């Protein structure tokens, strides 16, 4: 079975006016199925560019990228869209849910763009995804009626609904307070335990420690790639927080 | 994306901005309503003309003197009056496909009777005239073949003449003077109403053709000949037969142009409706301009909508919408806007043309085909003017669209 992601010497150069910006200068990365990666680095390190390339939102300048063994560099824009629909699940920092559209309908959206499977009951499938993130009871709420953490959970359900090969999370906790961040991490850890591959971009050290493996980037290159020591369990952290809160009340 | 969802999404986004959508559609509503009403007025006028010409009589054929061609030089319409009583008689004798022939000699005359006077048209006709014109006698009787042979000074008058000369009396049997010639009224015509040019057909005095020709004119030429074909199907054949007979009578060789013209009713209708058709087209075209202005309104709003929803486009692209999906979505929205405008416009035009008819007496005729054309045209406007904004939306780069604030 091929790795979920195999990247070789990936280069991305932008033209900003007359100036060439070398966002990625030759990145190598392999992600196996079931991994949970945190990509870290300061802003400008190239982690977002890498994310966009992995997410098939953009084409690299050179280098090779195999997703599930398929060389996606060569694909047309339409096939790119289909890959995003079938193999990638995005979770964004700003949630990016459709406004004035219920949670359920937001989660249904990727199903409607699915050209491969003819899903008879998109509603049931979307509801199942919402159940996975524990929001089935909020399915008729619109984003402005949900808290930040709930919105992010809807976004996660939307990312999961087409059973992607990998979930790409771009600063998923960037807009959330620390408690809610841990709640989202708990969901990620649960999903990962069920075998879902996750790649998360973050610049927060403590968030990265919920992953299994950390890839550090600087100036468009991977400078360190190591497993997480002393991996944190979001579930335990949440229980500890609850206990602390109960103590301070009494 | 499935089409039901595409339509659902466009309806939702249209309903999200109710006021804006309504104002945008208003351009199309007004455009479509204007086109339909304008064309309805034109077609109404055309129908009125047709109906009026039909009142001329059944299977009517008319012979007019025509321009003579002397040495290759056309002498112009009616340049040489060549129709005579003999022409009418020849047709009467030889034509098989007509059931009645009547000469027509018109003289404007002052009629004195009942102590007042009235200016009207004296028409010299034959006994077949009533049959040809699909007319009838209300009171008294029509003149006979004997009256024609002896040029009797008898008259049958129309309702208008009767009303003006003898408002309180029975006109039949009264004596009148027409240009100082005494005449006796023997009959009253049924009321016929106005003709296609709005002329009162009841303002008439009918007299034997010979009486008018020899007593009020110099006895040489008649103005025209009326005839009635034996059946509607025979109109064209009768027209040809009459032409042949008259050519023989006038000794016109093959190749020479006729000095008369035989008109049939449908030709007359054709001639008159050609004018109104042009008018209808003109009115429709002017109204069509407002439809285009409405389309530009749609384009404008769609461009605004694409900009406002850049982020939404980015989200949709990131979860797998193809360019064509985005394109279809915005096109559907533009077409939904223009089509709903078109449908409301049709309703407005149906109500509007009815109100117009009631308030101004202008006859309108809403043709189902123009309604269909309006629907198709409004959809086309949506596609045409929605294309550029939709293209613009589809061409967005997903990353830029997602980052758009």
UniProtKB/TrEMBL annotation, chain A:
Membrane-traversing stretches: none
Domain ABC transporter positions: 5-244
Listed InterPro entries: AAA+_ATPase, ABC_transporter-like_ATP-bd, ABC_transporter-like_CS, ABC_transpr_LolD-like, MacB-like_ATP-bd, P-loop_NTPase
UniProt cross-references to Gene3D superfamilies, sorted A to Z: P-loop containing nucleotide triphosphate hydrolases
Nucleotide-binding is among the record's keywords: yes
Gene Ontology cellular component annotations, sorted alphabetically: membrane protein complex; plasma membrane
Keywords: ATP-binding, Nucleotide-binding, Transport
Coiled coil: none
MF-aspect GO terms: ATP binding; ATP hydrolysis activity; transmembrane transporter activity
Protein name as catalogued: Macrolide ABC transporter ATP-binding protein
From TrEMBL, chain B:
Protein keywords: Cell membrane, Membrane, Transmembrane, Transmembrane helix
InterPro entries (alphabetical): ABC3_permease_C, MacB_PCD, Macrolide_Exporter_MacB
Cellular component terms (Gene Ontology): plasma membrane
Location(s), subcellular: Cell membrane
Predominant cellular place of this UniProt entry's protein: membrane
Entry membrane topology: Multi-pass membrane protein
Pfam families: FtsX, MacB_PCD
One function term, GO molecular function aspect: transmembrane transporter activity
Domain MacB-like periplasmic core: 21-243
Membrane-spanning intervals of the chain: 21-42, 281-306, 326-350, 370-388
ABC3 transporter permease C-terminal domain boundaries: 285-397
Family the entry assigns: Belongs to the ABC-4 integral membrane protein family.
Name of the protein this chain belongs to: Multidrug ABC transporter substrate-binding protein
Origin species: Candidatus Glassbacteria bacterium GWA2_58_10
């Amino acid at each position: 079975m091929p790795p979920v992601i195999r990247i070789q010497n990936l280069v991305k150069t932008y033209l900003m006016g007359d100036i060439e910006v070398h966002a990625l200068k030759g990145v190598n990365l392999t992600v196996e199925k079931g991994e949970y990666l945190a990509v870290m680095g300061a802003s400008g390190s190239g982690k977002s560019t890498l994310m966009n390339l992995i997410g098939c939102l953009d084409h690299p300048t050179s280098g090779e990228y195999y997703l599930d063994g398929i060389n996606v560099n060569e694909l047309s824009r339409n096939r790119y869209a289909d890959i995003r629909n079938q193999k990638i699940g995005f979770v964004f920092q700003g949630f990016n849910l459709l406004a004035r559209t219920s949670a359920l309908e937001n989660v249904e959206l990727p199903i409607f763009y699915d050209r491969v499977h003819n899903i008879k009951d998109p509603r049931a499938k979307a509801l199942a995804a919402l159940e996975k993130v524990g929001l089935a009871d909020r399915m008729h709420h619109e984003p402005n009626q949900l808290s930040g953490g709930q919105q992010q959970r809807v976004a996660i359900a939307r990312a999961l609904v087409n059973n992607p090969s990998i979930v790409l999370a771009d600063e998923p906790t960037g807009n959330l307070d620390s408690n809610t961040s841990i709640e989202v991490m708990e969901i990620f850890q649960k999903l990962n335990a069920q075998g879902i591959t996750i790649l998360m971009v973050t610049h927060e050290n403590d968030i990265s420690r919920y992953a299994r493996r950390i890839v550090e980037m600087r100036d468009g290159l991977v400078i360190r790639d190591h497993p997480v020591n002393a991996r944190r369990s979001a579930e335990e952290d949440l229980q500890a927080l609850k206990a602390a809160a109960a103590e301070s009340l009494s | 994306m499935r089409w039901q969802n595409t339509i659902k999404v466009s309806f939702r986004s249209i309903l999200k901005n109710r006021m804006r959508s309504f104002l945008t559609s208003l351009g199309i509503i007004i455009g479509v309503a204007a086109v339909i009403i304008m064309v309805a007025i034109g077609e109404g006028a055309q129908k009125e003309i047709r109906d009026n010409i039909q009142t001329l009589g059944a299977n009517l054929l008319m012979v007019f003197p025509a321009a003579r061609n002397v040495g290759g030089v056309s002498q112009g319409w009616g340049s040489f009056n060549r129709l005579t009583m003999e022409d009418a008689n020849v047709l009467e004798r030889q034509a098989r496909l007509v059931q009645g022939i009547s000469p027509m000699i018109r003289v404007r005359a002052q009629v004195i009777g009942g102590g007042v006077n009235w200016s009207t048209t004296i028409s010299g006709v034959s006994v077949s005239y009533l049959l040809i014109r699909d007319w009838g006698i209300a009171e008294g009787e029509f003149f006979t073949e004997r009256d024609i042979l002896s040029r009797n000074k008898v008259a049958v008058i129309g309702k208008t003449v009767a009303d003006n000369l003898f408002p309180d009396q029975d006109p039949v049997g009264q004596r009148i003077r027409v240009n100082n010639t005494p005449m006796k009224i023997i009959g009253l015509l049924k009321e016929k109403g106005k003709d296609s040019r709005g002329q009162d057909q009841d303002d008439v005095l009918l007299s034997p053709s010979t009486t008018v020709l020899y007593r009020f004119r110099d006895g040489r030429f008649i103005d025209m000949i009326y005839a009635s074909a034996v059946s509607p199907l025979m109109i064209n054949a009768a027209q040809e037969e009459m032409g042949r007979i008259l050519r023989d009578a006038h000794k016109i060789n093959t190749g020479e142009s006729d000095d008369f013209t035989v008109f049939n009713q449908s030709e007359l209708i054709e001639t008159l409706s050609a004018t109104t058709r042009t008018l209808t087209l003109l009115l429709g075209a002017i109204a069509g301009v407002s439809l285009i202005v409405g389309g530009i309104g749609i384009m404008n709003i769609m461009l605004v909508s694409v900009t406002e929803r850049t982020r939404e486009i980015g989200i949709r692209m990131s979860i797998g919408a193809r360019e064509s999906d985005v394109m279809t979505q915005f096109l559907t929205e533009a077409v939904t806007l223009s089509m709903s405008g078109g449908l409301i416009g049709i309703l407005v035009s149906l109500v509007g043309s009815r109100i117009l008819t009631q308030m101004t007496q202008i006859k309108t005729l809403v043709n189902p085909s123009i309604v269909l054309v309006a629907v198709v045209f409004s959809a086309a406007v949506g596609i045409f003017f929605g294309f550029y904004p939709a293209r613009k939306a589809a061409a967005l780069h997903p990353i830029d669209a997602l980052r758009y604030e």
